[in-house]
Amino acid sequence: MSISDQIFAQHAGKTRVESGEFIECDIDLVMVHEQLGGRIAPEYMKLNQSKIWDPAKVFYILDHWVPPPDVRAAKMHQVANEFAQKYKFKWNMGQNLGICHQVLPELGFAQPGNLIVGSDSHTTTYGAFNCLSTGIGATDVSVIFSTGHLWFKVPETIRISFEGSLGPKSMGKDVALSLLGKYRTDGAIYRGFEFGGSGLKNISIAGRMSISNMVVEMGAKCGIFESDALLQQWLMAHTHPSYTSPNSRVINPEEDSNYCDNISINLVDIPPLVAKPYSPDNVIPVEELGQIEIDEAFIGSCTNGRLEDLRIAAQIVKGKTVKSSVKFIIIPASRQIYLDALQEGLIEIFIRAGGVVEYPSCGPCIGGHMGVLGPNEVCVSTSNRNFKGRMGHPDSQSYLASPAVVAASALHGYITVPDTKIWGNKK
């Protein structure tokens, strides 16, 4: 069995599962954010339940509209907070820690072998930590709140084996975009990705998170990485003193696992890439794009707002000034990353270069606030989606790229690759 097969089998109380099989699984952890106040709370209240199945297995955080930019968002937060207090959520993280998909693993809640679901499509991010994680809707969250179980269809698995190392100007984001170029937005619908190979050691944890984050853009159910020494080192540095899951254990694929597709990718062959409007799979090498002038350059989101991303961007803009016509926006993915960046002097570098550093939130990625695009404005962004109107006005355009490309583009005023190789320590 593949990694996802084994995790599904364990949580369904079975020794073996087959792709296409329908099963009911116990859930280790459910993550909820603003959708708790927007849709989940109203649905759950219809059930007239006096409690939820296990308040110690709910991770609650507000991150999309933080702080609330308008009355509607403020009311949504009020409803969510009241619900969390009424049902006594143990892990009530509030709205001061950052973006859910960074904070949850950062605090030690993403553990190998676990089955984690969340009220957000990019819950797939936690697959970087050798667990099975996937996004679900409001009704499914209500079912879990009531029973602790949820049904799944066991997906087929696509095996990706990495070889070699990334080139001097490429990042994990470029790996994600290269996969989108191959599988498109419909090439992995309800399939799971499994990542491993000899080149895995050359992809940082931050890079792995970017890749797992974006598998959902191909329609995938999950994107799980094999465990290795780099992951074990990261996990040891990110533990929670009061949280452990009884199902936590490293899971790697069995020999002769059954895959619907099995390919090898040499990382050195992946150049800096960009996804043109209006789809994440509209991918070409940056150097083939031509000179596309920009109005905004955004580094952040649950895809790329990690310390590694900020370090690389700071290296590129240090001692320089961004184009005066460009809004250069940087949003660290968590409060801890913000503090670390402050300590390392990265925030000062961005501000002196003409950037605007904002508090951890999804912000402009969803067209929410803190950098919304106006009519005909063009943005190069590290986020995961560039659908029409995603970041603001329907006539605006968003190009997806790595933090290195975004930082270089902010300096030049058009989308381009860095002049020199990026920070080399990708671990």
Automatic annotation (TrEMBL):
Catalysed conversion reaction: (2R,3S)-3-isopropylmalate = (2S)-2-isopropylmalate
This protein's pathway: Amino-acid biosynthesis; L-leucine biosynthesis; L-leucine from 3-methyl-2-oxobutanoate: step 2/4
Cofactor binding, per record: Binds 1 [4Fe-4S] cluster per subunit.
Pfam families assigned to the protein according to its UniProt record, in alphabetical order: Aconitase
Record domain Aconitase/3-isopropylmalate dehydratase large subunit alpha/beta/alpha: where: 6-288
Keyword Iron applies: yes
Keyword list, A-Z: 4Fe-4S, Amino-acid biosynthesis, Branched-chain amino acid biosynthesis, Iron, Iron-sulfur, Isomerase, Leucine biosynthesis, Lyase, Metal-binding
Class in the EC hierarchy, top level: lyase
Function statement: Catalyzes the isomerization between 2-isopropylmalate and 3-isopropylmalate, via the formation of 2-isopropylmaleate.
PANTHER family: HOMOACONITASE, MITOCHONDRIAL, HOMOACONITASE, MITOCHONDRIAL-RELATED
NCBIfam families in the record: hacA_fam, IPMI_arch, PRK00402.1
HAMAP family, alphabetized: LeuC_type2
Name of the protein in question: 3-isopropylmalate dehydratase large subunit
